[in-house]
Specification:
This protein has 261 residues and is an alpha/beta fold. The protein contains 10 helices and 7 strands.
């Protein structure tokens, strides 16, 4: 791992907590210089201080393309290159599509999709000019299950997967690699919105970070983990309607709980 990441410059959006912080720790241990870019700037500074001199913090609201581009340009100027860009920042919401105000759809899509597009394009332009780089976008294995009541989140992650696959082909002639990560449930604060079932338990952030770093090292364009979710991915491609009975159960159960509340 040190041969791949040593002396590389990496930016991680949403790096002040959860998976982003775990990725920062892995990359610093592998010899990379890591910029933790997060809307929670003070928390980002705390994480960077704990990781040592190879870690740095910057404030960033990924829903603002102007802020994203400003961070990318600052990293290029301050550190001389941009080798890895992790579009990791994300939010979610929970409820039936018809019950959610449009503001919630807008909030989730701006962070999860527009933020990823903005980060990818800004990073890609720098990497294209320097002739190398890796862009890693956070999708979700939920695009394979399409769980009801997570409409904005799953919509945004479908967009991330499609966008990443398009950009991966466009970028390869310039020696820029693009990967999309589709993990199962990860034990982060986002799970407070919806506790996973016993069939799809959450994995620790440290394990998830290792899987992502290993997938990047192996140049995988689509990184799906853990193993049970690779099986779900295969099932969904074989027959997208196969899980519809389970999806209907989820909707009906949620409606019963809502009516009895």
């Amino acid at each position: 791992m040190r041969d791949i990441f040593s002396n590389k410059v990496a930016v991680i959006t949403g790096g002040a907590s959860g998976l982003g912080a775990a990725l920062a720790k892995q990359l610093v241990a592998a010899g990379a210089t890591v910029i933790i870019a997060d809307i929670a700037r003070e928390k980002a500074q705390e994480v960077a201080a704990a990781l040592g001199k190879r870690a740095h913090a910057m404030g960033l609201d990924v829903s603002s393309p102007e802020q994203v581009d400003s961070v990318v340009q600052r990293v290029k100027s301050d550190f001389g290159s941009l080798d890895l860009f992790f579009n990791n920042a994300g939010v979610s919401t929970y409820g039936e599509a018809s019950d959610l105000p449009f503001a919630e759809w807008d909030r989730v899509l701006r962070v999860n999709l527009i933020g990823v597009i903005a980060g990818s394009i800004s990073a890609y332009r720098v990497m294209k000019e320097q002739g190398s780089g890796r862009i890693i976008n956070m999708g979700s294995a939920s695009v394979f299950t399409c769980d009801p009541l997570l409409g904005p989140y799953i919509t945004s992650k479908f967009g991330v997967v499609g966008f990443s696959r398009v950009l991966a082909i466009e970028a390869e002639d310039y020696n820029v690699r693009v990967s999309v990560v589709c993990p199962g449930n990860i034990r982060t604060p986002m799970l407070d919105l919806k506790e996973p079932s016993w069939l799809t338990p959450a994995i620790p952030v440290e394990k998830a970070a290792r899987c992502i770093v290993q997938g990047i090292a192996r140049n995988r364009k689509i990184i799906v983990f853990p193993l049970r979710w690779r099986f779900v991915w295969w099932v969904d491609r074989l027959n997208p309607a196969l899980l519809n009975p389970l999806r209907r159960v989820i909707v009906r159960r949620a409606r019963r709980l809502k009516s009895s509340a």
